[in-house]
Amino acid sequence: MDFEQFFKDQLRRLREENRYRVFADLERQAGRFPYALWREEAHGPAREVVVWCSNDYLGMGQHPAVLDAMRGSLMLNGAGAGGTRNISGTSHHHVLLEHALAEWHGKEAALLFTSGYISNETSLATLAKHLTNAVIYSDADNHASIISGIRNSRCEYRIFRHNDVEHLRELLAATEAERPKIVVFESVYSMDGDIAPLSAICDVAEEFGALTYLDEVHAVGLYGEHGAGIAERDGVADRITVIEGTMGKAFGLLGGYIAASAGLIDFVRSFAPGFIFTTSLPPMIAAGGLASLRVLRGAADLRARHQDRVRYLRRLLAGVGLPVMPNASHIVPVWVGDSSVCKAISDRLLMDYGIYVQPINYPTVPRGSERLRFTPSPFHSAEMIEKLVSALYECWHDRSFALDPTGTSSLPPSRNVLARSSAYEAVARN
Ligand SMILES: *Cc1c(COP(=O)(O)O)cnc(C)c1O
């Protein structure tokens, strides 16, 4: 077989569909968030741009307390963990951080993983595989890491329509009462920014004795009095069996975790290959995570300012008639609906305005629902927001994009008519 030809053909297909991924070469500037240096070519000149699509939602990746903790641990403990958790790789910082995470979520215990992706994949696969004859109920919009975990478990699963509690109930009711059931969902959905009805989902899950697994990756640090997520905000944390989070987003670092009962955590710790057979996070990451958590706990002001920036951006976008997708979170998606136009607008914003926002295309979102996803932080000034909106407005009405030549922007068709299963398809093919 001609392997090189095969790779080339596959990549050509991606390019033809306008979904070949081009990474922006960025140098983030600690102390200058959300500015970064961007290079078009590796050895070319650098240019300062404003980053509008970072998941470091609160700029914690540059917080002095986090940097101090990491610097301190780096000098004291060195660079890497030196082993898996079982074989010399458990540092004191890991232990302290797991205690703090558990307490934050009101759970008995917590367990760290090298990423949020791994925490979902290996925890779900391990739980579902070992619970004999289990059935998983998974929201249609769940993240690729969740879908991959479900598939790896080789367990029977059913997909319920996005945030549709009645559909979930129907599916649960249609299953034999004695089979173990796991309901898997997210709180804030990353690409639409909508929020799940946690309490109603808990009601149904409890009615059928199902275990609940909640991905709070886009909510930890951002919602609730102490920033512990939507489950804290809605007062339902004690009704969720497993809360999964990441340190890669609002924490500004890297690493994932689950928080649950002591028994469940001990079980995953003892049986999950993605936890057992890999080198643990460097101690300095755990130290940074602990420092970040301490700040986030008391960061009500930062959270309020974050939501204030979000409201301002939304108001200006809607004010000039741009199709901002409505939701109740901090994620501001602007609907484009065409992959080449989405990429062209993103390129133009970067080249002509020094504004960086990555186009979001299939399979991250369904085909025909391509969008620009903005994530304003407390550090995006009013002036930056105003500049973004006027730049986007100019691009939008530029006829060369053949977008919206009449000047009337429209919101997407009802999301229920879209094919929602893009991520499931994508994972299934891999
Ligand atoms: C980003 C993301 C993850 C994975 O977290 P990482 O720490 O980045 O690996 C899991 N779930 C959702 C919903 C995500 O958006």
Low-confidence stretches: 404-409, 413-421
Percent strand: 5-15%
**Mean pLDDT across all residues, rounded?**
94
> Portion of residues in helices?
40-55%
Shape: globular
Question: How many runs of DSSP E, i.e. beta strands?
Answer: 14
Instruction: Give the distinct bound molecules.
Output: pyridoxal-5'-phosphate
Structure report:
Belongs to the class-II pyridoxal-phosphate-dependent aminotransferase family. This is 5-aminolevulinate synthase. Homodimer. It holds the Pfam family Aminotran_1_2. Its EC number is 2.3.1.37. The protein is an alpha/beta fold and 430 residues long. 41% of the residues lie in helices and 15% in strands. The protein has 15 helices and 14 strands. It has helices at residues 3-16, 64-77, 92-104, 116-130, 144-153, 165-173, 198-207, 230-233, 262-271, 273-276, 283-297, 300-319, 339-353, 382-396, 422-429; strands at residues 25-28, 35-39, 46-51, 109-113, 135-139, 156-160, 181-186, 211-215, 242-246, 256-260, 332-335, 355-356, 359-360, 371-374. The strands form three sheets. It has a seven-stranded mixed β-sheet, sandwiched between helices. A four-stranded mixed β-sheet has the order 1-2-3-12, covered by helices on one side. Strands 11-14-13 form a three-stranded antiparallel β-sheet. A hairpin with a 6-residue loop joins strand 2 and strand 3 (46-51). Helix 5 (144-153) packs across helix 15 and helix 13 (339-353) packs across helix 14 (382-396). The longest helix is centred in the C-terminal third of the chain and has 20 residues, at 300-319. It is globular and about 60 Å long. The relative contact order is 0.15. Mean pLDDT is 94; it is low at 404-409 and 413-421. The structure holds pyridoxal-5'-phosphate (PLP). Pyridoxal-5'-phosphate (PLP) binds next to helix 4. The site of pyridoxal-5'-phosphate has 14 residues, from helix 4.
